């Protein structure tokens, strides 16, 4: 699950986990995705 790849306290990618789980090119793509720094409600 994608949420498992994000540190809930720092709102940053778990870089070591991603680099050890995915191939180098996929890890680079994932880490290039910007994350929202502040949690917010999802609106549907």
What topology emerges from the helices and strands here?
Elements: E1 6-7, E2 12-13, H1 15-21, H2 24-31
Antiparallel strand pairs: 1-2
Helix pairs in contact: 1-2
Structural class: alpha+beta
Strand content: 5-15%
Counted up, domains total: 1
Strand order of the largest sheet: 1-2
Q: Tell me, what's the shape?
A: elongated
Q: In angstroms, what separates the terminal alpha carbons?
A: 20 Å
Give the proportion of residues in helices: 25-40%
Number of helices: 2
Low-confidence regions: none
Give me the oligomer status.
Answer: single chain
Mean pLDDT: 90
Number of strands: 2
Radius of gyration over all CA atoms, rounded: 11 Å
The SSE string, one letter per element, is EEHH
Describe the structure.
The chain has helices at 15-21, 24-31, and strands at residues 6-7, 12-13. With 44 residues, the chain is α+β, with helices and mostly antiparallel strands. The chain has one domain (1-44). Strands 1-2 form a two-stranded antiparallel ribbon. Helix 1 (15-21) runs antiparallel to helix 2 (24-31). The longest helix has 8 residues, at 24-31. The protein starts with 5 loop residues before the first strand and ends in a 13-residue tail after the last helix. The model has no long low-confidence stretch (mean pLDDT 90).
């Amino acid at each position: 699950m994608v949420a498992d790849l994000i540190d809930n306290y720092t709102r940053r990618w778990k870089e070591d986990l991603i680099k050890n789980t995915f191939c180098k090119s996929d890890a680079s793509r994932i880490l290039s995705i910007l994350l929202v720094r502040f949690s917010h409600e999802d609106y549907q």
